[in-house]
Amino acid sequence: MNKVFNRIESITGNVITVRAQDVQYNELAQINTRFGKSLAQVNKIDGDIVSLQVFAGGQGVSTGDEVRFLGREMRVSFSEDLLGRIFNGSGEPRDKGPVLTENMKPIGGPSVNPTNRILANRMMRTNIPMIDMFNTLVVSQKLPIFSISGEPYNQLLARIALQAEADVIVLGGMGLKYDDFLYFKEELSNGGALSKTVMFIHTASDPTVECMMIPDMALAVAEQFALQDKDVLVLLTDMTNFADAMKEIAITQEQVPSNRGYPGDLYSQLASRYEKAVDFANSGSVTVLAVTTMPGDDVTHPVPDNTGYITEGQYYLKGGRIEPFGSLSRLKQNVNSKTRKDHRALMDGMIRLYSSYKETLEKKNMGFSMNKWDEKLLKYGQLFEDKLMDLSVNLSLEASLDLGWQILAECFEKEETGIKSDLTDEFWPAK
Amino acid sequence: MTENKGRVVSVNGNLVSVQFEGNVSMNEICFVKVEGTKLKSEVIRIRGDIAQIQVYEMTGGIKCGDEVEFTGEMLSAMLGPGLLGQVYDGLQNPLHILAEKAGWFLERGIYADGLDVEKKWEFTPTAKVGDTLRAGESFGTVPEGFFTHKIFVPFTFLGSYTLKSIAEKGEYTVTETIAVVTDDRGREYPLSMSFRWPVKRAVKCYSERLAPVETMETKVRLIDSFFPVAKGGTYCTPGPFGAGKTVLQHTTSKYADVDIVIIAACGERAGEVVETLTEFPELTDPKTGRSLMERTIIICNTSSMPVASREASVYTSVTLAEYYRQMGLHVLLLADSTSRWAQALREMSGRLEEIPGEEAFPAYLESYIAAFYERAGYVRLPDGSTGSVTIGGTVSPAGGNFEEPVTQATLKVVGAFHGLSRERSDARKYPAIDPLISWSKYKTVTDPKKAAYCKNILLFGDEIGSMMKVVGEEGTSIFDYTVYLKAEMLDAVYLQQNSFDLIEANCTKERQRYVTDKLITILGSEYALDSKDDARSFFNRMRAKIIDWNYAEFQSDAFKKIEQEIDAIYKEGQGKLTGEAELLLKGGE
Predict the structure, then answer these.
(1) Do strands B386-395 and B377-380 pair parallel, antiparallel, or not at all (unpaired)?
(2) A282 → chain B, closest CA residue
(3) What average pLDDT is seen over chain B?
(4) Considering only CA atoms, which of B313, B114, B75 is closest in space to residue B194?
(5) Which domains does chain B have, with CATH numbers?
(6) Complex ipTM
(7) Rounded to two decimals, what is the model's pTM?
(8) What's the DSSP call for residue A132?
(9) Which of A21, A110, A258 is the closest to B58 by Cβ?
(10) pLDDT tens digits, one per residue of B359-378
């Protein structure tokens, strides 16, 4: 029943056209080229001219190659067997495991009915103080990690994968350097988290079209796990590469670009992925953390800018640390009143003092003399950065709060902290 | 439903071309038959025998040759009792019914009536047989929650009609015939409690449109006292992400002094809608004491829902607003965010391969935005009563830059501009409306002269502040420094407002007037303060006291006690009212 065509009409970049009838929009096809088989997906039908984006790229495709339409859309196999496995953007194994073909589920499915969602109100512990204590991650939240090239964002993701309190981790890598891929694989297996992880990896040397499939594959799998009452954490890196892949295809197909060459539907495309983050009433959840590198450290670049309008806050990774200023978890107030009664006050107090420290540091750098209070702030800032902000710190929320009090006590008198006296009386460590 | 049919000839994203026979009209609704379901679509361009349609659903699986059915109808909303408290998608499908039909996800091809057609309503006729009626005139009423819902001759009826028969008081469903009217040629038309209206056309069944002069209290001090909004007026709130657009709209939707609030969540986060859905049924309307949800309708087409119905959602919501205005009610429509709507237009324009305008937005962007905001208005109705639709739209400019096309096109047509700034939101100064760039053409709740006086202080304070950054505190005179401190204090105690505190967030116009007078006394006085340190500590104390005052219920004992303490601090500083301020306060009495 599969229709086979032997004449390719045009080849532009990764997009080919064939004359064919009775083809469905978004249908998959298989192309046999001299370098092997590749999947392709219909992305435009005009009469009997059908355009397809070729997953393996247009290189080496001949006008005489065979195109076989498969009569179905892109799907992904779903079962417990996925755990511990690694796939590419076509859903083929990247490890040495078997091909999975059971229980195929469509990808990029419809969005969740808003009336079936529940208010995000559970904390997701990561044991990273800058997250748990200062910008708490909430189950079903979607948050980008804004960063620039060269920052250790993949190290941060790996730490979160190892430490986060999630049942299943789904890692989607887009345009990853090969050594980063190896790094993830090694870290997760050394840390013993590989058995609860599924990876969909596209490396920088793989074809562009596969890059565009990664988030949909990862999120479709995550959604299925969530419907089986699992709390799933999806880690995506790097969404800017995903946007660039979309740009490449759009330009190849002569779409009118809107802003810096990106297609006009960039916002909708990003949103339909991020909005997969959900807490199902009486079932599991999907939480999304996605690295977005900012070209030229410019937050007004279309990718981070559109992302910021979609997500519920952002983490800024700067100088190897999660910046306390600028970083924001919009949902943190839903949970941080229920953790420990000193959480909010201590968080606010410590950030206020840290901001005073920054001002003092500026004064110091400009050559002003330091008074006693300034000296105290300088000591505090240093301790704060070393003991809490460093990415390698692995502490539970409660331990971080205790450590926070200790740092305060080491530098200040109770009254100087500006924290309400009933809390300082209770939590101030004895010297 | 006409018998008109067509066949798909091309598919590009959610744009599908259809070859048809017979007649097809622009914006007509049609259905694409695919995989056993029918996908709702709208004709957006016709060329020869090819109609281009935008599909309101995901288009995967459509192939050339698939059948398309044309309905002959335009996209319309079902109007009648039972709209209040509902949560709809952009095409007026009740979301909870979709959830019952389809489960977790919004499966495509599943639609439901906008109104419950089985529920019975208590109808009371108000017209008699033989009465002459025109479109938009009522012939009966139905109690809907707290409101008296009027039943109208459909807005689509042209000319005048005679009432031939009408049902007796009793319980009927929204689709049962309850009256029959005849036109001048004697043809009969059955009427029910509901009818449909094409959402993209403005309802104009009023006698005249009046100027928006009555201020709509939002209870936000910065808005009501400085940049007010009028009932029947329009305003926009542009701002970068994280500046608090949605929180500000959320607060407005709770406290605004209107009868009905319609929230159009257009292309934004689903989580925010869930928040409203969870919170509103628990909150009480300060005016009626009923649940806030009873006066609210939510139209939600979140960012991941299909983009074509996002475009429809703003029209659906404004149509519902106009419908309730016809009953002599004051309706506030909050659209968040109009930029997402404009982007939906841009996506379609790109697929239609139209020549792009600035930043690839279509050339008709400005006229579409203008036409949308023009549907607001304060009107006199056929029965002599008045009603209004006020529209407030947020704008999400790319990179927070107000020079972009959507912000600029919006600024041309609105009556008030509340510009949110990143600087203010970073400094946690909420609401982050920047008083130096915002403006309004409407009347403030306080004396406009007093508002101007306060604005002047803010302006001077800002100038002195920037000068101080260069010359330092030492190089500033004590007079200038005092003005700077006054401006800082005014900002902290009046402009900034905690929207999460019940008393603080609900600041009535009486209170605003009272507090403004007190502030003018403080700001318009000279003090015997010798050093800058003295001045700083004086205003810091004053500031802390007034902030406490803001949290006390108006004219309560605590309120009066704190006021005495404020007066005491004023006396300590040996405040002496200047002539200008004295004149201002007298004029206000």
Answers:
(1) antiparallel
(2) B104
(3) 92
(4) B114
(5) 5-74 (2.40.10.170), 79-110+206-440 (3.40.50.300), 120-193 (2.40.50.100), 448-587 (1.10.1140.10)
(6) 0.87
(7) 0.92
(8) I
(9) A110
(10) 889 999 999 999 999 999 99
